[in-house]
Design a protein that fits this description.
Helix content is 15%, strand content 38%. The chain is an alpha+beta fold. A six-stranded antiparallel beta barrel has the order 1-2-5-4-3-6. A hairpin with a 2-residue loop joins strand 3 and strand 4. The chain is globular, with a radius of gyration of 19 Å. It starts with 7 loop residues before the first strand and ends in a 5-residue tail after the last helix.
């Protein structure tokens, strides 16, 4: 589990095809000090497993399905990536609950610089639009961000100077493809409301059903 608070910008040093997957060697002097083989790490919003580490680099491998669903297949040597180590149970939850399970890819439509911030608008896939609400959370390339507004399929987030400086958003341009992960809680609620159990009971929530499930009024 992660929080969407980027801890370091890493650099892709080497890519090596492995079957239909790709092994990435990443230079990350800060993060590698805490990494061991089999540890998880978030790279541009994608949770991957460390298969080798040799300060100042570590290696991960992305399988075919991961490459298909994310932008990792577009990385090349010298690409910069957002990195986050897994959440400890004693850590503060600075962003929101992020799994590193990318739902889909969005496209940056515009970047507008304001006096002390930037407004970045991203077009999201239609099938995920119902997970987005104003002032809700969204993870873009592994960064926990707050939705400032939404119009149709275009979601706008406001970026403060610190976030722009400490993440790869500083390299984003109109047309940049980004990994998206939508709110975990919203997805579980949707699953509950559309479960077979709900269908068998008429698909309606009543006070009696809430009490039956353990929610006392």
């Amino acid at each position: 589990m992660f929080t969407g608070i980027v801890q370091e910008i890493g650099k892709i040093i080497q890519l090596k095809s492995h079957g239909n997957g790709v092994a990435f060697t990443v230079e990350a002097p800060q993060s590698v000090k805490e990494l061991r083989i089999n540890d998880s790490i978030l790279i541009n919003g994608v949770c991957l497993t460390v298969i080798d580490e040799n300060d100042p680099t570590f290696k991960v491998e992305a399988v075919e399905e991961t490459l298909r669903k994310t932008t990792l297949g577009e990385l090349k040597p010298s690409s910069m990536v957002n990195l986050e180590l897994p959440l400890r149970l004693t850590d503060r939850l600075g962003g929101h609950l992020v799994q590193g399970h990318v739902d889909g890819v969005g496209v940056v439509k515009s970047i507008v610089q304001k006096t002390n911030s930037w407004l970045i608008t991203v077009q999201i896939p239609e099938k995920f639009a119902h997970y987005v609400i104003p002032v809700g959370s969204i993870a873009i390339d592994g960064i926990s961000l707050t939705v400032a507004s939404m119009q149709g399929l275009e979601v706008t987030v406001s970026i403060i100077p610190h976030t722009m400086e400490q993440t790869t958003l500083r390299q984003a341009r109109a047309g940049t493809r980004v990994n998206l992960e939508f709110d975990l809680i919203g997805k579980y609620i949707e699953r509950l409301l559309h479960s077979d159990r709900m269908e068998e009971e008429g698909g309606r929530i009543s006070r009696e059903k809430l009490k039956e499930w353990g929610y006392e009024s």
